[in-house]
Amino acid sequence: MKKTLITLFLPTLLILGACSSDNERAIEENSSNDAIESSITTTSEVKNPEGDGKALVAYFSLPVGDDLDVTTGASVMEANGEYLGLTQQTANWISEELKADTFRIQADKSYPTDIDDLLDVAAEEKSNNDRPSLASKITNLDQYDTIYLGYPIWNADFPMAFYTFLESYDFSGKRIVPFSTHGGSGLAGTVGILEDELSNSEVVSNALSISRNNVADSRQEVIDWVDEVK
Ligand SMILES: Cc1cc2nc3c(=O)[nH]c(=O)nc-3n(C[C@H](O)[C@H](O)[C@H](O)COP(=O)(O)O)c2cc1C
């Protein structure tokens, strides 16, 4: 039976970084089961010809499952007949409003599409302080003055692949605008981590944080926030 959100994240928050032998077993089982893996797209960069090319929306997002019930652990919403991750949908609204280029941060590996298996893999990555390699790179970061950085909260933290992204580029002198979706933890201190990691950048403190339960109805909130921080 699927775990509910409450049972999903309370233990996660209480025992951050812990890696049980159950987790280890699940990962071993998972690594030999390639029937439940998500696919990787390497075409992550989207140019917006209407924009001035000075703002970039870079985000990590991992749609889970194949239904729209966010309360059972799926993190997808349907837009124009397409299933999107919740951070991905938020990123799309931001880039539409700004006419900004977008970049999807993706690990160069497949993650389980089953939420329970994914939680185990993510907990293992975090307890190992992994830096999963990424599927694609931004080749023209210099051209951007402002970078909107989007991520889901995983284990009251960034997904580990997001750390790989942060450590792969020189963000010095850039304006960084964080946005996030979550299942109850809010920003979980991630803006402070960004300030530490990107100490030579201006990290905007007015980060956008949306509960997964509200993302579908949050388009106007996202647009209003963009108008405040841009
Ligand atoms: C592996 C994993 C760990 C998560 N850990 C947390 C957490 O610690 N706190 C929280 O509020 N939400 C947590 N969530 C929920 C996600 O932050 C939330 O569903 C988010 O909207 C997913 O965004 P996405 O669809 O763009 O990937 C977790 C989700 C996953 C898949």
TrEMBL record:
<feature type="signal peptide">
    <location>
        <begin position="1"/>
        <end position="20"/>
    </location>
</feature>
<dbReference type="Pfam" id="PF12682">
    <property type="entry name" value="Flavodoxin_4"/>
</dbReference>
<feature type="domain" description="Flavodoxin-like">
    <location>
        <begin position="85"/>
        <end position="228"/>
    </location>
</feature>
<dbReference type="GO" id="GO:0010181">
    <property type="term" value="F:FMN binding"/>
</dbReference>
<keyword id="KW-0732">Signal</keyword>
<dbReference type="InterPro" id="IPR008254">
    <property type="entry name" value="Flavodoxin/NO_synth"/>
</dbReference>
<protein>
    <submittedName>
        <fullName>Flavodoxin</fullName>
    </submittedName>
</protein>
<dbReference type="GO" id="GO:0016651">
    <property type="term" value="F:oxidoreductase activity, acting on NAD(P)H"/>
</dbReference>
<dbReference type="InterPro" id="IPR029039">
    <property type="entry name" value="Flavoprotein-like_sf"/>
</dbReference>
